[in-house]
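# nightly structure sweep
# worker-07 picked up a monomer target from the shared queue
# config: single-sequence mode, recycle default, output format = structure tokens
# input follows
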Amino acid sequence: MLVDIFRNDLFRTTSLTAAINAVETPPQRIAELGLFDEKPVRTTSVVIERRDGVLSIIPAKARGSDPTPMKDNVRSGISLEVPHYPARDTLLADEVQGVRVFGSESELEGVEAVRDEKLTTMANALDATEEYARLGAVQGVILDHDGSVIFDLYDEFGVTEPATIFLDLNAAHTAGSAPIRSKLTLVKDQMRRILKNQPVRGVWAPCGTTFFEKLTNHPEVRETYLNQQEAADLRGGDPMERFTYGGATFELYPGYGDVEMDEDECRFIPMGVPGLFVSSYAPAPWFSAVNTLGLPRYTMATLDPTGEKRIDLESQTNGLHICTRPEVLIPGSRLAS
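# output follows
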């Protein structure tokens, strides 16, 4: 009987969870960059420890004299609850009426195809939700779907958001001058000081649409790139989506809907700093997942009380996406002040 299919391994929690984690969805930009270290945890909260270590210069002394004692790093820690993002869909009996996979006589394969279509829809929604949270994390404030604040990382860590760097992209330009490059040098120096001389492998600057348009058409940028192959798009044709200038890689952030940058702004983000960006995945609130290491996605299925009409599919992600040093996330603006 068809109803027996709903009771086989195809709809067991372990099979569903494995299936939704195997779904291949279009890569989200921040995920594609590999900016966040992904760490599964067994708990529903995460303690973030900060060490404010300062490099010391050791004074020269006479041979045989007492060595200079080292100062211990000052440690501080905060506890953050891992947000819970559940989604639900329903597979109705009518949806699998007469279903067959093309070229197959297997009822099971047909039902599996309908199931996987719904899992893909939910996986796409979970991925967009994760990108939204990470976009908030790289700006220091993680928002819910309605714009309400889940975590203000500046408040949580007791630090101040850095001052905005105003690039004044509408200002008159003097040929040969490089005010934008000079400000980018200040950005990198500020990052170096905040990170206590930790090496930074690059600076990523996701941009809003107006910011990126003004920057790519700015005389200083065009003077630098007009004769270089890597900036072919600046010479004509379609506007390019990313380029590197002054040690920062500017990119038109490919957002959509609520997952997008403010059109007049960018954010300067250090790359390649260990432990700076972390995604912690907690287990689902199910008995089968208690005290296990969290997975990026979970799915379970529940039959309706009659066991005949429908099956409810619940998918979820339980991810905390944060920057552990939000004071290094420097905002930029195309405006003068």
